[in-house]
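[Solved] Which block belongs to which protein?

Original post:
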Amino acid sequence: MTQAAIGFGTQIRRSPYFDATIRWGAKAFSVYNHMYIPRDFGDPEQNFWNLVNDAILCDVAVERQVEITGPDAAEFVQMLTPRNLSKMAVGQCKYILITNADGGILNDPVLLRLGEDHFWISLSDSDILLWAQGVAVHSGMDVTIREPDVSPLQLQGPKSGKVMEALFGEGIAELRYYWLREAELAGIPLLISRTGWSSELGYELYLRDGSRGDELWERIMAAGTPLGLKPGHTSTIRRVEGAMLSYHADADIHTNPFELGFDRLVDLEMPADFIGKAALRRIRENGVSRRQVGLHIEAPPLKEPNATFWAVSKNGAVVGKVTSAVHSPRLKQNIALAMVSPSLAELGTQVDVELPSGSAPAVVVERPFFDPKKKIAAA
């Protein structure tokens, strides 16, 4: 089925790298956090192989930053998330969940601590700037909340370290997984973190002056092309292999952390209060009505990721839904993330998935589907 094209307009923001991505082969875009994001540089399978064998550069300026500063910044950020931040050091990053009063997930960002009273929340796709500003209104806390002029790029893949050394010198190799440092490249102000949405070795380069986006892109490509760097887009294949969430698909405001197996990101015993604490305590005590699982779907290779939620059934009764599905050429398998009834979450459980082409058998398997200990990304 032919998909309708997305027209460009002034109501959707363009990233500082927009023109550069067009020059380097971006063929299609979608919208994320009210901005255009490149989604097509040609064959998505080739993009996957470029990522896992070499390196790709992705425009992810859509990962907007919510900057929180002020004397009460640390206390305020803790109020937004059930993850215990009491030991988070300056220069560290953490994957967090932001929850509402019902324990529902509003966003699953990366939190960066630039200073004692200085934080960035690097967003997935939802309006946390407005949420945080609203929470602050009657909080009684002394904080300033704004969206800074910051636009990330992702440099991901096994050769990303060599590209970074070519740009910043050998010392960049000392940057640890989920830590950050401030830097400059030919006078371009940056913050660099050992993070990314790929489950591969990678870095994110946060540009702190949007007027220099074109220059930054070209400098990275000039240094990286001889090392095998290609322009690319975030890989659905690789992120599903790594069981990385896509907000609005695998989680939303009606999803709680325990359904996803994210117990480690919820500390109900810490002294600090946070939004949703009472609700999450009740959910933990009462148990969940569904759980996320991995599936192998026994069918011909999927030609493209799912564009709708596919029903999961057992003995003819609907018991859940597939949230993300794709064919992995490396695993030679159709893999999927799904939400199902807890009684069907045991490994080896047989279910059926209603594909657009008809019903197909599937089996519950471990997730992540590849490199389950995340050794590649943390190397």
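(Second protein starts here: sequence line, then its structure tokens.)
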Amino acid sequence: MLHYVLKHHAPAHEALVLPPGGWKQSELYQYCCSEYDHEHIMTGPIVGRGQLIGTVHFARVGETPAFSLHELASLGAVCTHLSACLAELRKPAVSASDVTLKRLTPREVQIARLVAKGLTNAEIGAELWITQNSVKQALKRMFRKLDVSARTEMVAKLRDVI
């Protein structure tokens, strides 16, 4: 059963992947479930970066009925949610550069990118169809927002995001 979950990254229960009567003969049952006499089991994948990183198991003992397809689908939803939550936890923290970039307007970001390419105010103005003076005023505003005093300092502060 674990081989199925590993291969398909999909939840399964014993009746879905094993022949009738095969559950109590399986390696999984012998390894962990025989001690508790698990009559039925369903297993779902926890996936991270495209690979199986864990599983969630639900078991039933005694004379309880086997898991239904609805319960299996619910387990799939739980596993998808857990996988997504783990992926969110693994995301890198927002960098200072990302926060800094959000202070700028889209037009200011365009100007910053052209400054980073080494263009002069006149060249930036021509590229963006604005006056050289408009570029100069935008740079002054950007310097204040970013707490810098020179073009090179601004580019260094934004180097990871522009």
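Accepted answer:
You had them paired correctly. Confirming on the second one: Residues 116 and 155 are 6 Å apart (CA to CA).
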